[in-house]
Amino acid sequence: MDLQYIVYLIVGLIITWAVWTYNIFIRLHYRVKEALADIDVQLKRRYDLIPNLIETVKGYMAHEKGVLEKVTEARAHVVTGQNPLARAESENALSMTLKTLFAVSENYPDLKANANFLDLQRELADTENKIQAARRFYNTNVLQLNSKVESFPSNLMAKVFSFGKEKFFEVESAVEREVIKVKF
User: Fold this and answer.
1) Is residue 131 within 8 Å of residue 39, measured between CB atoms?
2) Who wins on pLDDT, 147 or 1?
3) 49 and 92 in contact (C-beta within 8 Å)?
4) Which letter does DSSP use for residue 63 in this model?
């Protein structure tokens, strides 16, 4: 009789552990999805700010039409139907063209003093910071999920319920990985 209770206890503990582990995987899975959605929200915010910035700059930078066209073209290449991980290359290209735009704006003192331009520039800088924070948050959640998927004994439950590893958000461009060289 005592052996029967021990077997029931062991089976009960295994079932409890399985349910608990499954629920952890579900929670981690949705945290990763939420983090990816947060990235998407910030990218959409940046995407919506760019036309306002371009219109503000147009009047001042008639000579720099090529820069404005590159920003517009890069914005157009961002495909809104894909998730942020799939759009990473397009988003990186857009970031680079925005940096070019702000670098060229240094040649226009009136533009740099324009309140609307300064507000938009601050908004874009704030948005870029939020995008980076959202990407870090996403990577933290991916790390937690991937660690759980690969750790024993939870990896057994991951296989049973088909929970897989997620991809980290990484810099794809070799240019962005290079160390910036400062010359005086």
Assistant:
1) yes
2) 147
3) no
4) G
Asked if 172 and 152 touch (Cβ cutoff 8 Å), the reply is no
Q: Is residue 28 part of a domain?
A: no
Cβ(42)–Cβ(126) under 8 Å?
no
| 139 within some domain | yes
- In the three-class reduction of DSSP (H, G, I as helix; E, B as strand; rest coil), residue 2 is classed as helix
Domain range for residue 155? 2-23+34-177
| Structure-block tokens of residue 165 | 């590893």
Distance between CA 51 and CA 49 in Å, rounded? Answer: 6
| 183 assigned to some structural domain | no
How many independent structural domains does the chain possess? 1
DSSP state of 150: H
Domain of 73: which CATH number?
A: 1.20.1440.20
Looking at residue 182, its pLDDT comes to 38
CB-CB contact of 137 with 38 (8 Å): yes
Average pLDDT over residues 64-92: 66
Residue 94 lies in a domain: yes
> Is this model's pTM higher than 0.85 or not?
no
